[in-house]
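$ ./design --mode recover --in tokens.txt
reading tokens...
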């Protein structure tokens, strides 16, 4: 990417591609954990933690290598921003998994299922856009899809909170579910910001 190999040649994937794969895996685990058909299990959430740790290790290796790479400082900044942004998404997924597990009485709702599905969709679109980052025309459909998912995520959040307030649940449940919904909406927003970062870099190198 940008004419520079981030990791040694013998590695089959660049660090950024590897992070994308790991992010897709983490989002898939979240979808499986919050399966709306009754097949979900909090056990899937535990599996996100080692993925987050591996992404940390990848980001650290990239950071160290960029310090000793002879390339334009702006290129280094762009690569670093992408790596840290993708790593941040995995961290947020891990944090949500830990929070959901800590709420012993929390159950998956249809709104949660929709929101985690949107997260997985955006992550997939990012995975398709990153390899084509130097070809703006090719990534535009991906970016538009990400924007649609972000809007749908906001609408789903508002619908979920509205239904929650009308549900007559105990105050403790209201706070718990609102917190979970807000976390998911925030993750969707973070994913959309990565899409915006990809767009800015793509325009710069077009």
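writing sequence...
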């Amino acid at each position: 990417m940008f004419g520079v190999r981030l990791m040694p040649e013998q590695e089959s994937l660049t660090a950024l591609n590897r992070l994308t794969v790991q992010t897709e895996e983490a989002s898939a685990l979240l979808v499986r954990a919050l399966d709306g058909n009754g097949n979900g299990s909090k056990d899937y959430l535990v599996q996100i933690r080692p993925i987050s740790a591996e992404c940390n290790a990848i980001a650290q290796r990239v950071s160290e290598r960029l310090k000793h790479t002879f390339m334009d400082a702006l290129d280094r900044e762009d690569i670093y921003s992408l790596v840290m942004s993708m790593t941040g998404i995995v961290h947020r997924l891990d944090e949500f998994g830990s929070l959901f597990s800590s709420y012993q009485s929390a159950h998956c709702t249809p709104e949660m299922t929709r929101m985690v599905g949107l997260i997985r969709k955006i992550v997939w679109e990012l995975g398709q856009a990153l390899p084509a980052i130097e070809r703006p025309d090719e990534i535009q459909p991906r970016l538009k899809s990400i924007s649609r998912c972000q809007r749908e995520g906001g609408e789903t959040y508002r619908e979920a909170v509205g239904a929650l307030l009308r549900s007559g649940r105990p105050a403790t449940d209201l706070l718990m579910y609102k917190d979970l919904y807000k976390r998911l909406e925030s993750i969707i927003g973070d994913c959309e910001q990565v899409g915006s970062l990809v767009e800015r870099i793509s325009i710069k190198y077009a």
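exit 0
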